[in-house]
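User: Assemble these into one structure.

Assistant: Restating your components, then the assembled model:
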Amino acid sequence: MSATIEYTPKDYKSDLKPIWCPGCGDFSVVQAIYRALAAIGRPPHEIAFISGIGCSSRIPGYTTAYGFNSVHGRSLPIAQGIKLANPDLLVLAAGGDGDGFSIGGGHLPHMVRRNMDIAYIVMDNQIYGLTKGQLSPTSQKGRSTCTSRHGSLEAPVNPLLYMLAYGAGFVAQACPTDLAGMAAIIEAAIRYPGFAFVNIQSPCVTYGEESQQLKSLKAISENLETIGHNPADRLAAMDLAQDYGDKLHLGVFYRNPEPPPTYGDLVKERQERLAKDAIPRENILDLFIKK
Amino acid sequence: MTDYSPGSRGMGQGAPTRKDLVFGMAGSGGDGIVSAGDSLLQAAAAEGYHGVMTKSFGSQIRGGESSCRVRISTEPILNPGGNLDVAVALNWEDFLKFGAELPVSGTTVVIYEAATNILPDNIPLVGVTPRQVIAVPIAKMAKDTAGTERAKNTVVLGLIAGWFGIGAVAVMKGIRKKLAKKGDELVEANQRAFDAGRAFALENPLTISMAIVPSETKGAVKLITDGNDMCAAAAIFAGCQFFGGYPITPSTEIMQFFTDRVWGYGGAVLQAEDEIAGIGAAIGASFAGKKSMTATSGPGLSLKTEMMGLASIAELPLVIVDVQRGGPSTGLPTKSEQSDLFAACFSAHGDVIRPVLAPTSVADTFRLTVEAFNIAEYYQTPVLLLSDQEISQRKETLDPIDTSQFVILDRLCPSGPDLKDYKRFKQTENFISPISFPGLAGGTYLASGIEHTENGAPTNSGTVHARMNEKRIRKLDPLKDRKDLFEVLGNPNAPLAMVAWGSVAGVCREALNMALNDGLNVKLMVPYLLYPVAEGAYRDFFASVRKGLIIEQTHLAQFHKLLRMHIDLPAGVRPLARSGANPFLPGEIVAALHNLLSELQRRHEGKLQPQE
């Protein structure tokens, strides 16, 4: 780590031109990530940024970090392998609501229970944008899309409630309506020693409905700090999380006031403890000698 | 008192005549048949014999039927043998469930539990008259001497020591060691049970002696292990520091070995939530610069498919072990088959070549696993190591392996000049580009499943795609010239031939020796590299061949078809293929070769007929 060098947001911005539509919320998200990373100050080459597939999953390529734009729904398993292989890296994962809560949804509880020091940012736009507007796992019930012309028959998932119920140590929500607030929340998530989840309401300007655009979101948004929510209170957080889809609470829902050891801490302890008994690699077959 | 000195061979045993003995034992789950097989194999190793042990179970979690085959020989052996020389049935119902896995012939001595109340001339083996059938009150002897029927397996070991001359001292030495912590009483009870078995044998000699001759290599250091443990140990030797996987029979022991040991080498294991996450984590660890692997069996291989394609296009080194079992779907989870070959070669969409290597024994699992890592790292590609249940779960006695003979390759990392304007997927002469890893300053890039340019930027360009496909495929071309990944045995210019891979190759090696002894002009090719298909190696091999067999444990004759996709086989070469859990026996392969020979001779005779 090079604490002596100061970084600015543009140090994390790559030369690639985003494929996003003009006005897409993800432009603000990537700006907020640049700011958060600059505030933390790790050099780009010490950061691994992993994503799946979707509009938002293009995001690692727009940073100067090591990026991995993998396959649909699998950012978290890959991120975990990276973190285990090199615990010194700052590991970030990101993707959309379809990537994270639908095809990759099975990985979430396990990601949470392992509590690796990884921050996961979901750009939740309630639609599949890259494939041009199909129903997503967070789409409102009854919503008409090109795969639900007669209205969706399914209730949406509630990612905030899920993550709190799974036992995540850090759960927050942000929105491009407040860029500075979003950057601060992402920074806090990265700094949290354990798994941290940030849901970002990032509107789709092309396939999103009027009610999901920034103007409408601003009208229903409410800052959790302003309303006096105590982020150490997990039950209160779960109560507020039930408003997902109706109100837009911004800020930290829950931050474990006493973060338990991370998976990485436990692995490190075990590695150190067992190192002295490891027979040299070249003699490993001695294990099979029968006398 | 019985004399247990190593040289002591009771009167009833007769002069040792045999150099090779195949034991097959079956009982119900609690009978300790497999543990008896373990003891026998260890005792045989201690006495300097070569041995192979396979076990077979019903798919019940506990109880149910279990069996093992133990083959012991004064010469090195590479398969569990054909017909049994000695069959031990603790009850007939369980014994019969194993069918072709425990074949009894006219030269077999059958030993069975007298409490089954079946007379020796009435045992339920249809269509065969064994050489000798002996009812032994095994359970009663256990109860009388050890106070419990649980000592039945020790009685059986005593019988074997008495009749066949294996383990008179070594078996109890092993049992004493194993039970040391459980107290003297249990050890002594087992000693009494063993003595009773041996005494019974000595008092009731076989009509024809079947005792094994002493080994000349007694006292030499031997290893005993199975293919899964060997694979995991080889991976750690090769420098593997990460395993991501999900439990699945019959590959799970690889992960178990890692969870016991890899931490001490600074590595880690992730038992993932599913097969996809297992390989995903392994890909992540590889991206982070560590040698990494996953292991699975058929159903898991199906699930890992998309991720295997990702590793190919992102050019990330990775070893994937597939321990084959009967398929499709859940299939035969505890039985061996070779039917994952197509999946191993062709899984993942798109134009992909992923090297597939296949070990043929526990011993060469070491070499092939190290080779899999070397190829993965050098060529920056996923490599599939295609083992099977037979190899993975059978135990072999092995001579020590000199690990200093092995070269370990690491991936090519970018040096100073490469890091100036670093291009991760740079087109080079040999199509291999230096690969950086997170943490390395100047090496940042975007790894991706989407097609990418030389510097890693996503692209839709057909021109770039074609060039990158060529890079990813042609970089593997040199593998086809790796002569050390092919073995040709027998007469190099023979007109008769066999090709076999995986565990079936071990059976064919023995069949080859038998056929050569019969005077057949025959050869055998054992490919260790199955894919990409090395056309040249096969063309050379088949140049002299008029008739031949591609021998494999698949219904579809997958290997035969794979070869035909790539080369024109001589017209007389055909598959000898069948589904799993019906093991090939060396004798039947020799018989098939004799048939080929007579076909060949008939054709010659035809040619000699005067033309009209």
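The mean pLDDT of chain A is 96.
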